[in-house]
Amino acid sequence: MVLRNYSYRKLALTYVIWCVCWVGLQGFALYATFGFPWRLALLDACITNFLLALAGYVMISIMRFYQPGQVVRLVMSVIFSSLCMFIFKQTMIGLEIDDPAYYEFLDRSMIIRALYGWLMVSLISTISWLWSSVKEQQEMELRNASTEKLAREAELSRIRQQLQPHFLFNSLNSISALAGSKPEQARKMIQQLSDFLRGTLKKDDQQLVTLAEELEHLNLYLEIEKVRFGHRLKTTITCDAASTAMTMPSLLLQPVVENAIKFGLYDTTGETNIAIEGKNEEGYLVIRVQNPFDPATSVPRQGTGYGLSSVQRRLYLLYARQDLLATEQNENQFITQLKIPQ
Length: 342
Known about the structure:
Layout: H1 8-32, H2 38-65, H3 70-94, H4 100-181, H5 183-203, E1 208-210, H6 211-229, E2 233-239, H7 241-244, E3 247-249, H8 253-265, E4 272-281, E5 284-292, H9 305-319, E6 325-330, E7 333-341
Parallel strand pairs: 2-4
Antiparallel strand pairs: 1-3, 4-5, 5-7, 6-7
């Protein structure tokens, strides 16, 4: 709506210009149609429209703080227009204009003037009511949008925080197991865990990061997991040059890779390779995480699991789309694909 884009200053300027135009039109009509001198015609037009403009301003001021019903607005417009015409007639009589024909015209035209005044004041009150209603609706929409944004950010923060304790507990258990038998590896893992958590805290305020930054942080996580699983965990990361500069939500890959490690290593005893691939495909950053999958030994899974369901929920909150995460089983490989709009 046009009123939505207007500030109060612009509306006031428009109101003044509109009143000046009516002064010119009324003065020209009195001069050209009824043959009154142009000074008298302009005097009549100026006083009439000044009083109506003043009444309109009072109506606008009332509408800014109080929204009366339609009947109340009608009564108010009748009262204000009648008062304006009464003051106008008494003012013109008090000026003692030396033109009997004008006073005769003034008496005959009072009914038309009163109708004209009522229409102008009613029009001003209606526009002011619409303006106030639109501004109130706009402010309500802004409040609702702000509330929704805060709720969305709170849910995003909750999802990210829920993923950290699970990994942290596993790491602490591994450190506890290594402390007695392999203290050097335990100290190394503590340092790696410290670096990882420090990087996580730095990224908490970042909504988007480049793929290169995300992979750098992911490598800290993978180094910790490699201490836990030893030679059994292998990773292969391949990304084209265009994809590394593309952006994605921060800390998004860890739960996906954690899911791949969980279902790729927990049910096997040999080496397992987790393949991570990033590509630029038609304006999307497409990331595929692939891990071995043995239907004969793995426990059947319904859906995508907590980690992936949280990733899917986070993508929906950020992009309002449900098709950005997909999973598939291809023979003995489980593939998770992410599509990040740019």
